[in-house]
Design a protein that fits this description.
Blueprint: E1 7-12, E2 17-24, E3 28-36, H1 38-42, H2 49-70, E4 80-86, H3 90-107, E5 111-115, H4 116-122, E6 137-142, E7 147-154, E8 157-163, H5 169-179, H6 186-193, H7 218-229, H8 238-263, E9 268-272, H9 279-288, E10 293-294, H10 298-301, H11 306-317
The protein binds 5'-O-[(R)-(carboxyoxy)(hydroxy)phosphoryl]adenosine and zinc ion.
Length: about 325
């Protein structure tokens, strides 16, 4: 193909999703393949790192082949190979990075290592409303590994306003889900179980509510545990605990986002990451914030490679290229 479109193949293996996608000009998804290992890890109640990397190795070639064939492209049509460099599980990241390096070398394509959190941030550009986005924007990334409040003043320009001091929001959902007897992952299960539950049944704590932009969820988790221990087996009002816990998390997330949105006079709030598909969170953000709130469709909230390609596009057009000797960075941070 000889047009001026930029087509990037991205690979994402930072945790328990083996994903590959082809995205055009950073906004149009040509293919987005996700092989989830969730069911495999459910028996352990969380992600088992060695099992995750072994599974990535098993399926990654098939996932990439499918991403290419669904995009109706050959490798010669690609402008770049992008891959998640971190943060994430070291063994999982290594699988994606090594495959990406091999492809870049064999097909003589430039390589870009991308920050996973930046990928979540750019998942918002994959919606059809991307043309309406103007800076400054406040992005709340809430996932299994992260809770980050990020002020974005331009493309690739970030100011970190706050993050979690202990558990990530999704991690808290998953741990509490387990405490109250729900299957893994707890986030979507609590979302469902809270339907019809009384969110005021339990007065769970809202930690560091009035201070700065950091979050803390471990006290909340302990408070839930204390309640659970008060009940005989089978007697726990699961829906009420789920709804009350969820209300506490949502309250803190909304309150801090609201305060930051006003302080920095942003044009919009973006929600990203697995927890951003939570219905109560979306509803509360929409109701309480005085600027537009945007979030990706559920398939782009959880880990995927399309978002990695969208972020890579921004770096690619600036001329950034990485050497084949880049390494995985399990605790990579955004530049702040
Ligand atoms: O973004 P993601 O796939 O993984 C990380 O990068 O960490 O997010 C997964 C997390 C899990 O903790 C899962 O429980 C949570 O997102 N999650 C939800 C919902 N759907 C997924 N949490 C609350 N409500 C949901 N509906
Ligand atoms: Zn993620």
């Amino acid at each position: 193909m000889s047009d001026s479109m930029t087509r990037i193949l991205a690979i994402e293996t930072s945790c328990d999703e083996t994903a590959a996608a082809v995205v055009e000009d950073g906004v149009t998804i040509l293919s987005n393949i996700i092989a989830s290992q969730t069911d495999l890890h459910a028996q352990y109640g969380g992600v088992y790192p060695e099992v995750a990397s072994r599974k990535h190795i098993e399926v990654i070639y098939a996932v990439i082949e499918r991403a290419m064939s669904e995009a109706y492209l050959g490798f010669e049509d690609l402008d770049c190979i992008a891959v998640t460099q971190g943060p994430g599980l070291v063994g999982s990241l290594l699988v994606g990075l090594n495959v990406a390096k091999g492809l870049a070398l064999a097909r003589n394509k430039p390589l870009l290592g991308i920050n996973h959190i930046e990928g979540h941030v750019y998942s918002l550009w994959l919606s059809e409303n991307h043309a309406q986005i103007s800076f400054p924007i406040l992005t709340l990334v809430v996932s299994g590994g992260h809770t980050e409040l990020i002020l974005m003043t331009d493309h690739l320009q970030y100011q970190h306003l706050g993050g979690t001091l202990d558990d990530a929001a999704g991690e808290a959902f998953d741990k509490v889900g387990r405490l109250i007897g729900l299957p893994y992952p707890g986030g979507p299960e609590i979302d469902k179980a809270s339907e019809g539950g009384n969110s005021r049944a339990f007065a769970f704590p809202r930690a560091v509510m009035d201070e700065g932009y950091d979050f803390s969820f471990s006290g909340l988790k302990t408070a839930v545990l204390r309640e659970v221990q008060r009940y005989d087996e089978g007697r726990l009002p699961v829906s009420d605990v789920a709804a009350s816990f969820q209300a506490a998390v949502v309250d803190v997330l909304v309150e801090k986002t609201l305060r930051a949105a006003r302080e920095y006079e942003v044009t919009a709030v973006h929600l990203a990451g697995g927890v951003s598909s939570n219905r109560t969170l979306r509803w509360a953000m929409n109701t309480r914030l005085d600027v537009p709130v945007r979030y990706p469709p559920p398939v782009l909230c959880t880990d995927n490679a399309a978002m990695i390609a969208a972020a890579a596009h921004q770096h690619f057009v600036l001329g950034t290229r990485h050497d084949l000797d880049i390494d995985v960075t399990p605790s990579l941070q955004l530049a702040w």
